[in-house]
């Protein structure tokens, strides 16, 4: 429905117009009325109409002045002039300044008015259609130009462009805000991006990346000349033009300030961290690919120094100082401590291994070889004890592949430590169960196989072939807990595994593990773990 503004200094004429048509049934509505041009322009500051029907002779700003101002400020508005005077000069001036029709008031009736409005509607729709087409063309051109910019920057960073004249020409042609000398390149990567890709859909990850770019661009707008491009999944490159030469300390502080702002904003809005590797000053754009390689190499220091860092000195990125693997003595010591369920000794031995990795500054690949040996010890111990691998590794992950997803040494170490602790807890439970009577074993077997269903003391007693009172007493003496409490322990442990997998919603997990009431599940879970189910889920995501 199109909006119409009536402008006339006579209230009678305005009333005649308002009552001449059933406006809304005709597809129009009167959005306002003004007594002269000045009043009309004031109303239009709050609500711009589609059509203005205006008188010519008015005090203050007359119709001709209003037409001229509308043509200048609101060219999309269609103007119809009404007048009591059959004056050719008025007609000529009105049409020249932008009015689409000129009608004498005494000749105006409902039919004439509706014809004029319909003609104006056709003109408005044609204008909007043409505008939309042009906007679409401009959008496609903009996308194409953005792609060309991205491709050019990518080639520049790869070193596949060497001619200075070609580079300068492309920068000017693509309107890239970048100098050709005194540049710094920053290599950027979102931390734990592989885990982000697992948790979200491809579309959600694309939105995630675009949001990261939008936040970064908004902050980089405050730098005189800078560029950011997405180089690969979760990785980016930033190029800063430094202008006149400054001291390295000044450059260091300025770049660090901007990167720290980005780091703070993405943590605030996306709840993620990122790491940055910053090159030294590149004095010639033809050598920009060397600066990018330097920045990427500096970024590798993240493996030892940790995530969410800004690394700016190439001297911090040392080469590997050597190589080692676990010798027989180390393997035997770890294996023996593991079999004895001596976690303190295991922890001490693994700490020593990772301290050596850190002191030698081994690369991620070299570290993975050593960690594979540590995983082999776990697997061998499990096999010897008759433990299924599914008890150790969740969500069907192959441990060697899972290990490669971790980007920093500390995360790999934590994962290995957790794996060893998990195995020791299973071994302790097995040792404990070996000391139990056959009746208690029968009770545990029934509960393990039926925890998803309603389980009663009578059901367990019948399966074990004894009375309810007898099995209740024996179970409590041997396990230091009642059958109901043990059942809840089993259900909570399975619930924790589901949360670690991250495949089911919490309400589905509650039902799947045998709890019929969420509030009861909440109470039991918190008593046993010290945290709420939601808090545990958040811990798993981290």
Automatic annotation (TrEMBL):
Domain (GGDEF) spans 181-315
Asked if DNA-binding is a keyword of the record, the answer is yes
Sites bearing 4-aspartylphosphate, chain numbering = 55
> Which coarse location class describes where this protein primarily resides?
cytoplasm
**Mind telling me which InterPro entries this protein's record contains?**
CdaR_GGDEF, CheY-like_superfamily, GGDEF_dom, Homeodomain-like_sf, HptR, HTH_AraC, Nucleotide_cyclase, Rev_trsase/Diguanyl_cyclase
Domain named Response regulatory: residues: 3-120
CDD domains found in the cross-reference section? REC_YesN-like
Transcription regulation in keyword set: yes
Alphabetized UniProt keyword annotations: Cytoplasm, DNA-binding, Phosphoprotein, Transcription, Transcription regulation, Two-component regulatory system
Name of this chain's protein? Response regulator
What organism does the record attribute this protein to? Answer: Paenibacillus anseongense
């Amino acid at each position: 429905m199109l909006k119409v503004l009536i402008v006339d200094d006579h209230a009678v004429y305005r009333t005649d117009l308002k009552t001449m048509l059933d406006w809304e049934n005709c597809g129009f509505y009167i959005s306002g009325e003004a007594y002269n041009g000045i009043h009309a322009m004031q109303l239009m500051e709050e609500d711009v109409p589609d059509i203005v029907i205006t008188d010519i002779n008015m005090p203050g700003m007359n119709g001709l002045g209003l037409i001229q101002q509308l043509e200048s400020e609101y060219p999309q508005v269609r103007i119809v002039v009404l007048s009591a005077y059959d004056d050719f000069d008025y007609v000529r001036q009105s049409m020249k300044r932008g009015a689409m029709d000129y009608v004498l008031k005494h000749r105006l009736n409902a039919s004439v008015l509706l014809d004029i409005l319909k003609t104006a509607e056709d003109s408005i729709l044609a204008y909007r259609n043409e505008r939309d087409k042009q906007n679409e063309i401009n959008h496609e051109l903009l996308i194409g130009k953005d792609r060309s910019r991205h491709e050019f920057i990518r080639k520049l960073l790869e070193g596949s462009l060497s001619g200075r004249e070609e580079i300068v020409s492309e920068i000017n042609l693509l309107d890239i805000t970048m100098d050709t000398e005194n540049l710094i390149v920053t290599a950027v990567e979102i931390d734990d991006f592989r885990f982000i890709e697992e948790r979200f859909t491809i579309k959600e990850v694309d939105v995630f990346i675009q949001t990261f770019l939008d936040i970064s661009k908004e902050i980089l707008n405050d730098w005189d000349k800078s560029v950011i491009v997405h180089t690969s999944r979760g990785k980016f490159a930033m190029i800063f033009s430094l202008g006149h030469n400054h001291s390295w300390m000044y450059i260091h502080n300025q770049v660090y300030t901007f990167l720290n702002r980005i780091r703070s904003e993405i943590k605030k809005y996306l709840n993620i961290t990122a790491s940055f590797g910053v090159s030294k000053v590149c004095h010639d754009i033809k050598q920009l690919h060397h600066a990018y390689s330097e920045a990427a190499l500096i970024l590798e220091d993240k493996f030892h120094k940790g995530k969410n860092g800004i690394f700016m000195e190439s001297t911090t990125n040392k080469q590997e100082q050597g190589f080692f693997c676990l010798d027989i003595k180390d393997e035997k010591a770890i294996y023996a401590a593991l079999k004895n369920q001596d976690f303190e000794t295991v922890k001490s031995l693994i700490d020593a291994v990772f301290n050596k990795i850190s002191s030698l500054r081994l690369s991620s690949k070299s570290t993975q070889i050593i960690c594979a040996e540590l995983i082999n010890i776990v697997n061998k111990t499990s096999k010897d004890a008759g433990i299924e691998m599914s008890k150790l590794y969740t969500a069907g992950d192959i441990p060697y592949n899972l290990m490669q997803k971790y980007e920093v040494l500390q995360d790999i170490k934590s994962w290995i430590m957790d794996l060893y602790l998990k195995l020791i807890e299973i071994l302790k439970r097995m040792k404990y169960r070996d000391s139990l009577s056959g009746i208690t074993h029968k009770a545990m077997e029934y509960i393990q196989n039926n925890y998803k269903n309603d389980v009663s003391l009578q059901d367990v007693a019948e399966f074990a072939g004894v009375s309810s009172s007898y099995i209740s007493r024996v179970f409590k003496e041997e396990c230091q807990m009642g059958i109901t409490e043990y059942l809840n322990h089993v259900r909570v442990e399975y619930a924790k595994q589901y949360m670690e997998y991250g495949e089911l919603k919490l309400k589905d997990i509650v039902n799947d593990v045998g709890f019929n009431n969420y509030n009861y599940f909440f109470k039991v879970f918190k008593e046993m773990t010290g945290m709420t189910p939601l808090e545990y889920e958040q811990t798993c995501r981290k």
